[in-house]
């Protein structure tokens, strides 16, 4: 007796449960900003919603529709999520040294406890 997994079953076995995925912060903020921008076709709405939920759960701040900012390097973590979802070519990740009016972002990150006062010294 043996068990054979169908193609559909194999794809289900390989699916990752993203409901608890969270991007963790680095130990110390270096003053750089990481910006995630995406524009996905409608057929990828479930993947877009999943990505958005992970970003929000991880403490990213939404600055515009489909534009999120985070104070810690997150390229590897976001890339793993994107590669698994197959949407990486619809997403940009940028590092920025300066964001105008960044004090507003800093306040949001401190209020949400993503940044601590010791990160700002």
From TrEMBL:
Domain Transcriptional repressor PaaX-like central Cas2-like residues, every copy: 27-100
Superkingdom as given in the UniProt entry: Bacteria
Alphabetical keyword list: Antiviral defense, Endonuclease, Hydrolase, Magnesium, Metal-binding, Nuclease
MF annotations from Gene Ontology: RNA endonuclease activity
SUPFAM superfamilies, per database record: TTP0101/SSO1404-like (SSF143430)
Example GO BP: maintenance of CRISPR repeat elements
Pfam families: PaaX_M (PF20803)
Official protein name in the record: CRISPR-associated endonuclease Cas2
Organism of origin: Candidatus Berkelbacteria bacterium CG08_land_8_20_14_0_20_39_8
Record lineage: Bacteria, Candidatus Berkelbacteria
